[in-house]
Amino acid sequence: MPIDDAARAQIERAEALIELGRPEQAVELLATVPQTDPEAVVSVNCALAFAHLRLNQRAEAHASAERAVLSTLGAGCAAPVGAFARVDEASSALVLDARVMSVDGRERVEASGALTLTDAVGRGDAAPGEATSGEAMLREATSDEAARLGADVARQLLQRGAAEVTDLGATKAPRHPL
Question: Residue 90: how many CB atoms within 10 A of its CB?
């Protein structure tokens, strides 16, 4: 029994959502597709695998940028350092914000950087109808590009005095007498 037209249309909509950089919505849509025949089961599972791959690639780029900050700083597990990567849809860029704080929270050093996804992946000349949103292009930003962004932001922190604000190599919290 071949897949019915309604199920095929839902799967095609889900695939389009994935291409547009909206895999979360695609997963939700695919959950509603009736899997009444083997072709539908295979089609849904292939589309789900593709959606999860896109989600993993996005998470990998974010994590690569954030980890590179910590690695470049040589930050230990107890160092008061934070890094947060996100996609800014307005500029189609992977944006990374990082901060180093003193243990008492009185001093801080901050730095930010951005990886313009269209420039980073050579997609500034996308064809009409081709996906150009930051989330859609993030899948093409490599972990290496994101890691370079993280290293650049860490160097900014160091240039601004992050090493003087706190012990970046701290591996356990300092003890304070009670």
Answer: 7
In whole angstroms, give the CA distance from residue 107 to residue 139.
36
Contact between residue 168 and residue 110 where contact means Cβ atoms under 8 Å apart: no
Residues 125-131: contacts with CB under 8 Å, at least 24 apart: 131/19, 131/20, 131/21
Q: Among residues 98, 117, 115, 104, which one has the least CA distance to residue 162?
A: 98
Closest CA to 48 of 25, 74, 20: 25
Nearest to 146 by CA among 58, 74, 62: 62
| Digit-coded pLDDT (tens) for 137-166 | 554 567 889 999 999 999 999 999 999 999
DSSP-derived secondary structure for 18-61 = HHTT-HHHHHHHHTTS---SHHHHHHHHHHHHHHHHHHHHHHHH
Tens of pLDDT, residues 94-104: 899 999 998 88
Q: Are 118 and 92 in contact (CB under 8 A)?
A: yes
The residue behind tokens 């019915």 is 4
Give yes or no for a contact between 21 and 139, defined as CB atoms under 8 angstroms apart: yes
Unique residue bearing structure tokens 């930051």: 134
Which among 99, 103, 118 has a CA at the least distance from the CA of 160? 99
- Estimate the share of the chain in helix, then strand, then coil, as percent rounded to the nearest 5: 50, 15, 35
